[in-house]
Amino acid sequence: MSTQYVEIRKSRDFGEIISATFDFLRIHFKSISLTLLFYAGPFSFVGGVGYGMMNGQMFDFTALTQGSVASIINLAIFGSIFYVFLLLATMMSILMVNTYIDLVEKSENHAPIPHAQVWAVAKERIGITIVTAIVTFFMIGVGTLFCIIPGIWFFVPLSMIFILRFQEPHLGLVDAIKRSFTLVKDNWWMTFGVYIVMAMIVGVLSQIFSVPTLIMTMITGLTMYSEPSNSYSIFMTILNVLFGIVYTVGTLLLSTITYISMGFQYFSLLEKKDPSSLMKKIEQIGMKKSNKDDTDETY
Q1: CB 237 within 8 A of CB 52
Q2: DSSP 3-state helix, strand, coil percentages of the chain (rounded to 5)?
Q3: How does pLDDT run across 154-172, given as a tens digit for each residue?
Q4: Are 2 and 263 in contact (CB under 8 A)?
Q5: Residue 8 belongs to some domain of the structure
Q6: Domain membership of residue 289 as a residue range
Q7: Is 26 in contact with 256 (CB distance < 8 Å)?
Q8: Residue 257 has pLDDT above 60, yes or no
Q9: Backbone angles phi, psi at 159, to 5 degrees
Q10: How far is CA 76 from each of CA 50, 81, 83, rounded to the nearest angstrom?
Q11: Gap between the Cα atoms of 278 and 131, Å rounded
């Protein structure tokens, strides 16, 4: 039985990008999930604890209505933990998923890659990822600050900047940014469409992981409203923390959909500008024909 694989470096239209993303996930889901859980999961786990504790503090009505300084400080602390570790988990997931795609594309059989092998390469790219993220986020932020439209205009080509830097390491940051804008030229709307569609899919699916937190919020709100004198119980805090972890880890895994789709879009645009895979196939056909002729001459 032959190993299934999805050809990554290939020119695709809008529908084919969507289809290839889910085909790739179907084949590599286990390996990608383990990679994320091992290296981005701890950050997401701590963020989930902060998220749950933050929700717990928000619904401790007795302390908040009495203006408890400790409760307000705790709310700020847990909120900070949530957002800081959410950012770290996001950065790590961007690093790991794009490194995974890069390694699969460069492999001969496009087979799933063990998480340890991904980390061995990814850890050398931490510095590049951080610097690239800071610069690109700054560009998008400044563009959004002056007007939302420039921010969106910057965001679309820069959404592929990480896989571009891993695939074309000879380019510096400035050249990589220029390269991303060059690739997206004449394909801006398609790239924007791919990202929006995938982001919407992720947004809808992520609601599954937010259901327990929403139910807990409703129960807590009703309980505190009917019996405002009751303090927030330890049991409710534990449930909030557990549901917070489910939400943050679940959305972490779902985020791969967007990263993979933008990876396929990058390779699709790359092939339209520089059809190297087509030339490689032609060379392979020529080599096979040459080998066959040599075999016939031997006989």
Answers
A1: yes
A2: 85, 0, 15
A3: 999 999 999 999 999 999 9
A4: no
A5: no
A6: 14-298
A7: no
A8: yes
A9: -70, -15
A10: 10, 9, 11
A11: 34
